[in-house]
Amino acid sequence: MADTVHPAEKTENGPNGPNTAVWRSRAVVRRSTRAWRVRGSAAVVAVLMLSVLLVPPFAQLDQQAVDLAAKLRPPSWTHPFGTDDVGRDLLLRCVYGLRVSLLVGVVAAVVSTVIGTAVGALAGALGGWTDRLVMRLVDVFASVPHLLLGIFIVAMFRPGVWPVVVSVALTHWLSTARIVRAEVLSLRSRPYVDAAISGGASRRRVAVRHLLPGVLPQAGLAAVLMVPHAIWHESALSFLGLGLPTHQASLGTLVQSARGSLLAGDWWPTLFPGLCAVTATLAVAGLAGAWRERLNPRRRSELML
Amino acid sequence: MTPRTGSDSGSSGNSGSGNSGNSGTGGTGGNSGTGGTVLSVRDLSVRFRMRDGSYVRAVTGVSFDLAAGECLALVGESGCGKSVLASALLGLLPGNASIAGSALLGDDGLDLLRAEERVLAREVRGRRAGLVPQSPAAHLTPVRTIRSHLRETVRELTGDAGSGRVRAAAGRAAFPEDHLDRHPHELSGGLAQRAATALALVGDAPLLLADEPTTGLDRDLVERTVDELRRHTGDHRALLLITHDLAAAGRIADRVAVMYAGRLVEITDASGFFGAPGPRHPYARGLLNALPERDFTPIPGMPPELGALPPGCAFAARCARASAACTVVPDLVSGVACHHVAVAHA
Amino acid sequence: MLELRSVTAGYDRRTPVVRDVSLTVHGGEAVGLQGPSGCGKSTLARVAALLHRPDSGQIVLDGETARGWRHRAPRAQRTAFGVVFQQPRLSADPRLPLAELMAAPLRSNGRPVDGVRELAETVGLGADLLGRRPHEVSDGQLQRACLARALALRPRWLVCDEMTAMLDASTTAALVGVVEAYRRESGAGLLAVGHDRVLLERWCDRTVDWAELTSA
Fold first, then answer.
1. Would you call B263 an interface residue with chain A, using a CB distance cutoff of 8 Å?
2. Pairing mode, strands C56-61 and B255-260
3. Which of B245, B298, B288, B247 is nearest to B266 (CA)?
C-alpha cells in the first residue's frame, strides 16, 4: 500500500487557508482491481449478448442439417470451434446454444424471483399464522433436493423449452422468498413506517411506497444472481436428456451429444460449449456481485462526520 | 507557536525533531498533566474527494498538544469534523480521504498520519492509542460473547489469554463478571459502553480516544461513564474526549477545544470555559447558552456545508459581532480564533 | 384531553414492559415523562399515538375511546397525532428527498402540498436542502425535517419520543423552540418522553417520573 503524495498546492479557500499543504492519501489498491473485474465482466456479457443477438439472423442454421463429410473436424480457420459429430459448425451451434440457455436462464430466473418475492412479501407483511404457514411450506420444498424435484417436474412433460423453464422456476424461488421476507420484516419495524401510518397512510400506500421499493433492489439482485444458476440447471437437465431435444442447440445438449466424441479423443465438442457456459456464468455473476456492492447502503454515504 | 509549513520532515521513527515542546498550544493556564506530551498535533487537515470531483474539507489546520494525565474535551455540533479527527489519528479514514499535517505520538515522535498500515496495526492501535467508540453495540460482534471479545483482545495485545487476565480487564472498567457470557444485544447501553471501555483499556495505551462515549445514555450513566474514563486517565494516560455533550465535558475536562466547520475556534482551560469569565468565541458562548441549565436559547442559523465553506470566518453568517474584518479567517491567537475578542461585554 | 387508562403493553404477552399505567394530558398541556432507557416509556408513547396495540387498557382521545390501532385506527384519529422519534436516520425513508418526506402526510390525506416550503422554514431548513436525501444531510437537519413532517397536518397532540437525545445543545434548543411556537399558535398538547430530567423540567409544564407511574 503506497501513500500517494499529491504535489503541494494552494488550497481552495483562496488566500485564507494554509498556503501550501502536502496532501497524502492511502491508495486503496482493492478498489482498482474491483473496477477492472467489473469492466471485464461487463465486456464479456456485452460480447455474449451481441453475438447472441446479431449472429443468428445472419447465419441461418438449419438445426437438422447434416454434412457427414465434414464431421468432427478439429478447430481451423473455417470452423473456429471445429465441427460436431454430424458436421455442423460448432461455433454457430455454441452461439445458438448460448442464446437458448440465456433465454431459459433469464426467464426462469425472473419467474422464480417473482414467485419468491410475492410469497416472501406476503409472509412478511401479513405476519401471524399466514407467515408461519408459508414458511413451513418453504421448509417442505427446501427439504427436497432441488435437482431431483426439477427432474421430476420436467419428466412429466415432453422435451421442450417451456417445461425446462417451469422446472427451474418452481425449484428456485425459495431463497428469494426468505430474503424478501426478512427484508420486509426489517422494514416494517422501522420508525418511518410508523410515521407514515401516523400520518394517515393506508396499508396500500405503505406497502407500495415504502416497503416495495425497499425490497425491489434485493429482489432484482436475487434475479440476476439466479441467472447463472438457472443456466447451469438447464444444462444439467439437457445433459441428462430430460430438457431440450438433442437436435435443438443448448449448452447442455451440446455437451451431451459430445460425450461420445470425447472418448474418441475429440476434445473440442466438449470444451467449447463448456467454456461458453462457464464464461457466461462467471460474467453474469461478476456483474451481479458488482451491483450488490453498489447496493450496500454504507457506500452511498462515504462521508460520515 | 512556531509556524509549520506542510513540508515533510522525514519518515516515522524520527525522534525528537518533530516535537515542538510540551506547552499546550494556545492553552491559557498550565496543563494539569504531570508527564510529557503524549500527542502533538500540528496543522492537521483532512479532506474528502467526492464523486463529482469536489472536495469536502472536514478538518482544517487543527493543532493542539495533549499531556499525560490530561483530559482534553473536543466539542462541537454533529458534522463539525471531530469524529473525522479521531479516525485520522488512528488511520481509519475511508479511501477517498487525504490528510495533511502531523500528529506525533509519544516520546519517539511517531507520526500517526504518515505511519504505514502495518505499523498502525501492530504497534499503535490498542497498544499506544486506544479507542472507545461511539455506540458500542455496533462495534461489538453480535454473535460473540463479551468474554470472547476480551479474550481475543487480551491474547492479541499481551499474548496471555488466561481467565485471570480477562477478569482483570473486565474489572478495570467495572464490568460485572456474571455478564461476561452475554452477547452484546443482551446488554443495556451502559454495560455495553463499559465492555467497550474494557476492550480499549486492555493494552494500557498512553493515549485514549473516546468518540462520543455518552450518546444515548441517561444522565446518571453519562456521569458515571465519564467519571470512569477520568479515573482511568490517572496521571500517566491522556484522554481525548470527543463529544457534543457539554455537560459531560464540563465534568471531567482539564481543557476544552471547540471545533466549528472543521477548525478549532477556541482552546482554553475548562474552569475558565465553564465558569468565569466563560468562553470568548461567540460560537462557544452560544453553545453553552443553549443548554437547558442555562439560557436554553439556540444559536440562530445553521452551520455551513463542509463542501462549500465561505471565505473568511465560517461563523460570521450567524454571528452578532460580524464585521468587515470577518472576510478573513481569524488565526488561533492565545486560544481564540475571532477578530472581535477584544470587545468587552457585560 | 388525552387519557391513557390502565395500559399494559409489550412485545411478548408474558412479559409486558408497561404494566397498568395511567396518564392524562390535558388540552394544551405539555407533559414530560422521564425514565431511564429501556424502561418502557417509548412503548407507552407508541401506544398513546395508536401505533402499538396494548394487551389491555384504553386510550381515550378527546372523549372518544380508541378501538383500533395502526392501520385499523380511523384516519382521523391517527392524524390527530404528530410523532417524532429518537433516531432520525431510521425515521426517514432513505430514498425520499426531504421535501417528499415532509409532504408525505399531506399526500396520504389528499391535501395540497404547496405549503412545504413554509413548513421547512418554520423548522429552520433552507430551500436548498429540500432536494437532498437523508444521507446527504446531518442528523440535526434530518430531525428538523421529521419534526416538520409531524407538524404538517397540524395535529392536536404531539408525541416526542426522545426527540433530541442524539442532538447537540443548540439544535435541541432550536427544535424545542419550534415545538413550543407551534403549541402557542395551535393550542396542541404534548407528551414528551425522555431521560434528561433537566431538559424536560425546563421544557414541559409538568414532569412525571416513570417510577411514580408504575408504582401507582
1. no
2. unpaired
3. B288
Where helices occur in chain B by DSSP H, the ranges are: 82-89, 117-119, 136-139, 146-158, 163-172, 189-201, 219-233, 246-252, 270-274, 282-289
CB contacts of A305 in chain C (<8 Å) are: 138
Residue in B5, B46, B102 to test binding to A, most A beta-carbons within 10 Å: B5
Q: Write down the ipTM of this complex.
A: 0.90
pLDDT tens per residue, range B268-307? 999 989 988 888 888 998 888 898 888 899 988 888 878 7
| CATH code for the structural domain at B22-128+205-346 | 3.40.50.300
Task: Tell me the residue range of the domain where C31 lies.
Answer: 2-215
Across the A/B interface, how many CB contacts are shorter than 8 Å?
Answer: 78
Cβ separation C202–B298 shorter than 8 A: no
Helix (H) or strand (E) holding B72: strand B71-75
Cβ–Cβ below 8 Å for A199 and C51 = no
Angle at B109 between CA B108 and CA B114, to 5 degrees: 125
Give me A98's grid cell.
Answer: 448460448
Cell triple for residue C46? 407508541
pLDDT digits (tens, 9 = 90+) for B119-138: 888 888 888 888 888 777 77
B305-344 pLDDT tens trace: 787 888 888 888 888 887 888 888 888 888 888 888 754 4
Partners of chain A (3+ Cβ pairs below 8 A):
B, C
Mutate to test the interface with C, among B242, B291, B294 (most CBs of C within 10 A): B291
Task: List chains adjacent to chain C, taking adjacency as at least 3 C-beta pairs closer than 8 Å.
Answer: A, B
CB-CB contact of B257 with B64 (8 Å)? yes
Q: CATH number for the domain including C199?
A: 3.40.50.300
CB contact under 8 A, A200 and C153: yes
Query: A217 contacts in C (CB within 8 Å)?
Result: none
Kindly state whether B297 is in contact with chain C, defined as any CB-CB distance less than 8 angstroms. Answer: yes
DSSP assignment of chain C equals -EEEEEEEE-SSTTS-SEEEEEEEE-TT-EEEEE--TTSSHHHHHHHHTT-S--SEEEEEETTEEP---GGGS-HHHHTTEEEE-S-HHHHS-TTS-HHHHHHHHHHHTT---TTHHHHHHHTT--GGGTT--GGGS-HHHHHHHHHHHHHTT--SEEEEESTTTTS-HHHHHHHHHHHHHHHHHH--EEEEEES-HHHHHHHSSEEEEHHHHHH-
Q: Where in chain B is the domain with CATH 3.40.50.300?
A: 22-128+205-346
Is residue B117 helix, strand or coil? helix
- Which of B103, B93, B129, B81 lies closest to B239, judged by CA? B129
Which among C75, C79, C83 is the nearest to A194, CB-wise? C83
The answer to whether B36 and B67 are in contact (CB under 8 A) is yes
Could you tell me which residues are beta bridge partners of residue C32?
C192, C207
Domains of chain A: 44-58+88-293 (1.10.3720.10)
The mean of the pLDDT values for chain B is 80
- Count of domains for chain C: 1
Q: Chain B: give the shortest CA distance to residue C167, in Å.
A: 7
Question: How many angstroms separate the Cα of C216 from the Cα of each of C23, C139, C200?
Answer: 11, 37, 21
Are A108 and A234 spatial neighbours (Cβ–Cβ below 8 Å)? yes
| Residue range C101-119, pLDDT digits in tens | 999 999 999 888 888 999 9
Residues in C whose CB is inside 8 Å of some CB of A read 46, 49-51, 70-71, 75, 78-79, 81-83, 85, 87, 90-95, 104-105, 108-109, 135-136, 138, 146, 149-150, 152-153
Asked if C60 contacts C5 with a C-beta cutoff of 8 angstroms, the reply is yes
Enter the pTM of the model. Answer: 0.78
Q: Which residues in chain B touch residue A305, judged by CB atoms under 8 angstroms apart?
A: 58, 78-81, 83-84, 306
